[in-house]
């Protein structure tokens, strides 16, 4: 029984892209032909799943960034239940821990080589809290407003997340000027310290 002959077809591509693909193929000890065909095959499979390639890459990058920033995936209801238990058992310690976590995370950005640490922090936090239906952070000159609405937040989680945000904002040298908090609703207005 003979093998089925596979037809080949030529196509044009940017030279810089082919050079990069050739380098990757060599690093993986495969031919450029095999590597390009594998890329095509995977692209078609992604398309069959109804997923946009850019969305897939963004999602993967988001998970990597979250892991690198100390986040972990968990069941949302379990997370809220654990926050409730910690808050009920030792409110002061729970609030202190969440505040310190906000400070720690913000310092990760302020001590980096990032050009605009607050902007990157804001975008990452919005991405990492994808379960929050409304999460807005606006910055106008020396004022920042954070507005969060999530009907799934418990009372304890609302309080804990608020102090987390306060710790982060203080690390970015903002002072809380006004705050409104109700179960599932957080609004913080902060002004840049002028010292």
Short account of what is shown:
By secondary structure, the protein is of the alpha+beta class. About 55% of the residues lie in helices and about 15% in strands.
Strands, helices and their partners?
Blueprint lengths: L14 H13 L4 H17 L4 H16 L7 H14 L1 H20 L6 H12 L5 E7 L2 E7 L5 H17 L2 E9 L2 E8 L3
Helix pairs in contact: 1-2, 4-5, 4-7, 5-6, 5-7
Report on this structure.
With 195 residues, the chain is of the alpha+beta class. The chain contains seven helices and four strands; from the N terminus they run H-H-H-H-H-H-E-E-H-E-E. It has a four-stranded antiparallel β-sheet with strand order 1-2-4-3, with helices on one face. Strand 1 and strand 2 form a beta hairpin.
């Amino acid at each position: 029984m003979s093998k089925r002959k596979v037809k080949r077809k030529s196509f044009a591509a940017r030279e810089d892209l082919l050079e990069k693909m050739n380098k990757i193929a060599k690093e993986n000890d495969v031919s450029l032909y095999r590597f390009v065909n594998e890329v095509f095959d995977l692209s078609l499979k992604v398309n069959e799943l109804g997923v946009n390639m850019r969305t897939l890459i963004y999602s993967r990058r988001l998970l990597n960034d979250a892991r690198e920033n100390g986040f972990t995936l968990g069941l949302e209801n379990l997370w809220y239940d654990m926050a409730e238990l910690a808050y009920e058992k030792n409110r002061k310690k729970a609030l202190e821990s969440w505040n310190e976590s906000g400070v720690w995370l913000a310092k990760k950005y302020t001590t980096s080589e990032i050009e605009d640490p607050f902007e990157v922090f804001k975008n990452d936090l919005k991405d990492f809290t994808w379960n929050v239906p409304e999460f807005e952070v606006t910055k106008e000159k020396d004022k920042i407003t954070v507005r969060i609405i999530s009907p799934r937040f418990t009372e304890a989680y609302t309080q804990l997340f608020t102090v987390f945000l306060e710790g982060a904002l203080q690390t970015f040298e903002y002072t809380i000027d006004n705050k409104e908090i109700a179960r599932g609703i957080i609004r913080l207005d902060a002004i840049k310290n002028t010292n």
